[in-house]
Amino acid sequence: MGKTLFEKIWDKHVVRYIENETAVLYIDRHYIHEVTSPQAFNAIEKNGLKIFRPEKTTATADHNVPTVNQHLPISEKLSRIQVEQLEINCKKHNIQLFNLQNEHQGIVHVIGPELGLTLPGSTIVCGDSHTSTHGALGAIAFGIGTSEIEQVFASQCIIQNKPKTLKINVTGKLQKGVTAKDVILYIISKISTSGATGYFIEYCGETISNFSMEERMTICNMSIEMGARGGLISPDSKTIEYLKNKKFAPTGYDFELAKENWSNLFSDADAKFDRELFFSASEISPMVSYGTNPGMAISVSENIPLSNSLSGSEKISFANSLNYMNFYEGEKLVGKKIDYVFIGSCTNSRIEDLRSAAEIIKGKAKSANVIAWVVPGSKKVEQQAIAEGIDKIFTAAGFEFRQPGCSACLGMNEDKIPEGKYCVSTSNRNFEGRQGKGARTILASPIMAAIAAIKGEITDVRNYLN
Amino acid sequence: MKQKIEKIKSTAVPLPIENIDTDQIIPARFLKSTTKDGMGKNLFCDWRYDVSGNAKNDFVLNNSEYDGKILVAGKNFGCGSSREHAAWALSDYGFKIIVSSFFADIFINNAYNNGMLPIQVSDDFLSLLFSHLIENSKQEVEIDLPTQTIAICGTMLKEKFEINPYRKQCLLNGLDNVDYLTSIKSEIEKFETKNETYYVNEEDWLIAG
Questions:
Q1: Are residues A264 and A295 in the same domain?
Q2: Domain-terminating residue out of A220, A251, A275
Q3: Given pLDDT bands bounded at 50, 70 and 90, which one contains residue B198?
Q4: For residue B164, which residues of chain A lie inside 8 Å, CB to CB?
């Protein structure tokens, strides 16, 4: 019987099985950042160990860096200590670091693909759940905890249970105004925030293969939001084109060799998945979330669902969620006043995201009641946006064009949404307090966020497309 | 060596909320530490304290009636961020066992790696647990890892739970994954020479820095 793409890559990286499904898995690329790595460095040092393969770890500072005045020392003390500790640790252990002053700095899941460090067929881990993003290039990539970072430091391997496989097919043509973000929010809303727990997803179908690499990253990024370990997409000619001339990707003869290897990275026709799901692209509309987990999202033209079909404990969670958002069941979301717009995060901070948002706001001004932040995913995206004049489109419309980092996605730096305020955000999580204590997050695509900033309320972007 | 778990009999704390994500277990603003220490005081911080930092009376951790080494929570516990700080906070607070009808993947690994035991029970057993605990805060629950059973003490209610055999051995014997991995280093080195399929130009490394 044939193998799935996931199995092909997984099998190739198993050093040994300890028990039936518990493997020692070899890791090709390990990304670290300032927040989840310090305790792993401490443990390695305390146990008198050395980092086994320091050249296979790449570090960047992203989670709690400021998004203004990055040339100055970080003013917030605890953030500064964490970033400095990362610098000390990387220096001591000979790890490549892209710190705030480096031209390659950015959100770890933006810079990995951008620098050609994320390659098809590889295994990638990082102490961050959105590591699933890198699956867009046909890699097994997933988030890990700090004890697992320690395992990678000590041995370049982690002990891992083999997940089951789930094939998600999306076919058909997308309506105008419907983006990759809407597709993934739609899928999560259909299967729930735990609907893919225990599985590794492969996204298939013409809708997926028609997506650009950046759109595929948006899709894979949110795999974790339905509980999946990760999600990947079989590499194709777009993947290969994307990797050409990337900073650390192979070149010349090595690239030809790599290409040959990557051309075997597909699920065999007779491969068996543990589960399979089908979605039709034409049924998907621009999506917005209304609750406090990413599964609680609806088409912008729908009303918030009623709770009468829910069971006892689900009903309580649903009611708590709407209470937190100050929304009511059966209510319309269009027309709801908003206070903030955040365009950024590892989900939607790449150049295509910024271009699409800029297209919407060009020649318009943001609503006076809205504070709007655009935070590019990396120094490279920032530079590209400036080169294309996109930064000027944003600033002319009254948006703040900031410097790269995770920013208001999780509010670890100063970019927090105040208590009770509504923020239309292109990020990935609408959990209680995610963007700041008491902040109310409405997840949406970059173009939906852009139009919301202009109108000052939740708006169906389809009415404003040329 | 890590702490071992074999049998635990304790009162338990009920938290009948579904989809408790790691941002609730420990909000991001408490992730700025470079050590694992003292996370317990910020466990469930935004549910536990109001804006002025006063304890909220309606939250179970502030109810002096409830105490114990076991946390019983609604389904899909630990979803969201991979932050191990969530496991550190629960452990530092004093929990050894987390019971739910469903757990998020990364959280399970983080819990095991900190010597905690996540126990997945059926939806029915979880409801029974909740009703016993809500009715009687002194209700004890007994966990027996060798036989993989969880019982509501003083009743006939008992359920067998699943656990990966490797994880079970680790908890019973206090084994550590890093010790295991470093013990097979020569096998890993052999694997590396046999499987050179990753093509990053690592020799360019420090030049780029």
A1: no
A2: A275
A3: low
A4: 19, 21-22, 161
The phi-psi region of residue A31 (left if phi > 0; otherwise alpha if psi is between -120 and 50; otherwise beta) is beta
Nearest to B72 by CA among B147, B18, B129, B155: B129
> What six digits make up the tokens of A406?
């995770």
Q: Reduced to 3 states, what is the DSSP secondary structure of residue A246? A: coil
- Looking at A192-292, list the stretches that DSSP marks H as alpha helix, in order from N- to C-terminal side: 206-210, 213-221, 237-243, 252-262
Q: What is the extent of the structural domain holding A346?
A: 289-464
CA dihedral of A365, A366, A367, A368, whole degrees rounded to 10: -90
Q: What average pLDDT is seen over chain A? A: 96
Say whether B51 and A104 touch across the interface (CB within 8 A): no
Confirm or reject contact between A257 and chain B (CB < 8 A).
yes
**Both A297 and A213 in a single domain?**
no
Number of structural domains, chain A?
A: 2
Q: pLDDT tens-digit profile of B178-196?
A: 999 999 999 999 999 887 6
A214 and A72 fall within a common domain: yes
Q: Choosing among B82, B85, B114, B188, which should be mutated to test the A contact, i.e. which has the most A CBs within 10 A?
A: B82
Contact B198 A261 (CB under 8 A): no
Judgement on whether residues A296 and A267 belong to the same structural domain of the protein: no
Interface contact flag, A15 B205, Cβ < 8 Å: no
Q: Which chain A residues contact residue B21 at CB under 8 A?
A: 293, 429, 431
A-chain residue closest to B73, CA distance = A313
Tell me the residues of chain A between 288 and 347 that have a Cβ less than 8 Å away from chain B: 293, 313-314, 316-317, 320
Helix, strand and coil content of chain A, in percent to the nearest 5, comes to 40, 20, 45
Answer whether B181 sits within 8 Å of A42, measured CB to CB: no
- Residue B205, pLDDT above cutoff 50: no
pLDDT of B206 above 50: no
CATH of the domain at A436: 3.30.499.10
Q: Which residues of A touch B186 (CB under 8 A)?
A: none
**CB A179, CB A356: distance < 8 Å:** yes
Residues A238 and A91 in one domain: yes
Question: DSSP assignment, residue A325?
Answer: H
Quote the pTM value. Answer: 0.96
Nearest to B181 among A43, A129, A151 (CB): A151
Does the interface predicted TM-score (ipTM) exceed 0.90?
Answer: yes
Model pLDDT for residues B92-124, shown as the tens digit of each residue: 999 999 999 999 999 999 999 999 999 999 999
Is A403 part of any domain? yes
Confidence label for A310 from pLDDT (cuts 50, 70 and 90)? confident
**Cβ contact A125:A148 at 8 Å:** yes
Contacts of A52 in chain B (CB under 8 A): 185, 188
- Chain B residues within an 8 Å CB radius of A79: 32
